[in-house]
Design brief:
heterodimer; A: alpha/beta; Rossmann fold; eight-stranded mixed β-sheet; 11 helices; 9 strands; B: 89 residues; Alpha-Beta Plaits; two-stranded antiparallel ribbon; 2 helices; 20% strand; elongated; binds thiamine diphosphate; binds iron/sulfur cluster; binds magnesium ion
C-alpha cells in the first residue's frame, strides 16, 4: 500500500454545503490537516460561512468564529490578544476569508493586523469572484472573466481591470511570511501552512481554489484546471520568507487559451485579448524569476 | 438593549457534526471503483472535497451517504479505474 502524502486525520467532516467539486472546500480540508486541533478559525461572510451547515450542524471540528465581512483581520488580532491575556500560547489563530472579503472589503482590517505584526495566519482562498452571493466580480477577478456584474451579452462588458496582486500588497507590509498555494498541490500547501504556523508575526497565504459553479465548468475538472492555471502562468506558486523570494514549481509552459476555454466564464474572449493577457502573465512570471535570483544573490553577500 | 453582559442572549453555537447531513442525494453520477485495476495510490482520497473515500484493503471505499458525485476522483485516478455511473442505471 502506498504511503499517504498528506496527514490522514480529517478535521473537516462530510455533509457540508459546498458545491460539487468545490476548491474552497479542499483548501479548508488541507489547512486543517496542517494546523491540527489546537486551532481557532475566524470566517467572514463568504461561501465558507455557509458551508459548515445550517445550525446546529457544523463540518468544522475546531472552534470557528463567524465574523462580519470586513473584520477578519481585526477578529484574529482580537482572538490572539484574548489568548495572550489568558496565558494560552499553544493555539493557532487562522483567518479564512474569500478573495472579495480580502482583496476588497477586508483589506483595511487585514492591513492593520499586518502593520501590528500580530501573531496570526491569514488565508485568502481565491475563487476569483464573490461566489456566495451569486458570482459578482471582485478585485481578484481576472481580465476577461464573465460574472453577473461583468456581463458579456452584446456589450462585451467582461472584466476589464487586472487581478489585484494581494501577495505583493502583503509583501509590501514586510510581514515575515507570504506564500501562495493551490488545492492541486496539497503537499506543498500543507508544508506552507505548517511552516507559517511556526513563524511569529503575521503570515499571509493566497490559495487558488477553483469554483466550478462560478467558473462554469465541469466539477470534476477542479484539480486539472488548478494544475493548468499553474503551467499557463495564470497562478504561480512561490513564497516570500523574510523578504526572500522562492518559486516552488516551474512547470513547462502550457497554452493560456486552453486553460481559459475549459471554463465557460472565458469562452467569449477574443484572440487579441487572450494574447494581451498572456503577455501580461509572462511578464509577471519573469518578474518573479528576477526577484528570486535577486534574493539568491543577496543571500550570498555577507552582512556588512 | 441589554445593559449587562448577563442580559446578552447566548451566542448560538453549532455543535452537531455535519456527518448527520446526507448530501448523497445531490449525486447524479456514482463513482464505482474497479478494484482489480486499483494500485492503492490514494490520489482519489487525497482530492475528494467531500471526505467520502476511506482507505480499504482493495481500494477506495465510498461513503455514498455523502459523496456528491463531482467526478474529481475518477478524473485524477492515474490508472483510470474509477467509473462514473449514472444514478438511474
Ligand atoms: C458588509 C457586507 N456586505 C455584503 C455582504 C454580502 N455578502 C456575503 S458573502 C459575499 C461574497 C463573498 O465573496 P468572497 O469573499 O470572494 O467569498 P466567496 O463567496 O467567493 O467564497 C457578499 C457580497 C455581507 N455579508 N456583508
Ligand atoms: S459557489 Fe463556488 S466556492 Fe462557493 S461552494 Fe460552490 S463551488 Fe465552492
Ligand atoms: S465523486 Fe467527488 S465527492 Fe464523490 S468520492 Fe469522488 S471526489 Fe469525492
Ligand atoms: Mg470569492
Amino acid at each position: 500500500m502506498a504511503k499517504l502524502t498528506i496527514p490522514e486525520d480529517e478535521l473537516m467532516s462530510p455533509g457540508h454545503m459546498g458545491c460539487l467539486g468545490c476548491g474552497a472546500t479542499l483548501a479548508m480540508r488541507y489547512v486543517l490537516k496542517a494546523a491540527g486541533r489546537r486551532t481557532i478559525l475566524s470566517i467572514p461572510a463568504c461561501c465558507w460561512a455557509v458551508m459548515p451547515g445550517v445550525w446546529p450542524n457544523t463540518c468544522l471540528q475546531v472552534p470557528e468564529l463567524y465574523t462580519p465581512f470586513e473584520t477578519t483581520g481585526a477578529s484574529i488580532s482580537g482572538i490572539r490578544a484574548a489568548l495572550d491575556a489568558t496565558g494560552q500560547n499553544d493555539v493557532n489563530v487562522i483567518g479564512f476569508a474569500g478573495d472579495g472579503g480580502t482583496a476588497d472589503i477586508g483589506i483595511q482590517a487585514l492591513s492593520g493586523t499586518a502593520d501590528r505584526n500580530d501573531d496570526v495566519l491569514y488565508i485568502m482562498y481565491d475563487n476569483e469572484a464573490y461566489m456566495n452571493t451569486g458570482i459578482q466580480r471582485s478585485g481578484s477577478t481576472p481580465i476577461g472573466a464573465w460574472t453577473t456584474t461583468t456581463p458579456v451579452g452584446t456589450t462585451g462588458s467582461w472584466e476589464k481591470s487586472p487581478k489585484k496582486n494581494m501577495v505583493a500588497i502583503m509583501a509590501a507590509h514586510r510581514i515575515p511570511y507570504v506564500a501562495t498555494a493551490s488545492v492541486a498541490y496539497p503537499e506543498d500547501l500543507i508544508r506552507k501552512v505548517q511552516k507559517a504556523l511556526t513563524i511569529k508575526g503575521t503570515k499571509f497565504m493566497h490559495i487558488f481554489a477553483p469554483c466550478p459553479t462560478g467558473w462554469k465548468m465541469d466539477p470534476g475538472l477542479s484539480i486539472k484546471i488548478a494544475k493548468e492555471a499553474l503551467s499557463c502562468r495564470a497562478f504561480n506558486l512561490f513564497e516570500i520568507e523574510g523578504g526572500s523570494y522562492k518559486i516552488n514549481m516551474k512547470p513547462k509552459k502550457t497554452s493560456l487559451k486552453e486553460y481559459l476555454f475549459k471554463q465557460g466564464r472565458f469562452k467569449h474572449m477574443p484572440e487579441d485579448l487572450i494574447n494581451e493577457l498572456e503577455t501580461d502573465l509572462d511578464r509577471a512570471y519573469d518578474e518573479l524569476l528576477r526577484l528570486e535570483s535577486l534574493s539568491l544573490e543577496r543571500a550570498k553577500v555577507p552582512d556588512a | 438593549m441589554p445593559q449587562t453582559i448577563d442580559e446578552i442572549p447566548p451566542t448560538p453555537i453549532n455543535t452537531v457534526d455535519s456527518k448527520t447531513v446526507k448530501t448523497g442525494g445531490w449525486r447524479a453520477f456514482r463513482p464505482v471503483c474497479h478494484y482489480e485495476k486499483c494500485i492503492r495510490c490514494w490520489t482519489c482520497w487525497k482530492f475528494c472535497p467531500d471526505v467520502s473515500i476511506s482507505l480499504g484493503e482493495e481500494g477506495p471505499i465510498y461513503d455514498y451517504d455523502h459523496c456528491k458525485g463531482c467526478g474529481i476522483c475518477a478524473n485524477e485516478c492515474p490508472v483510470k479505474c474509477i467509473e462514473m455511473v449514472p444514478e438511474n442505471k
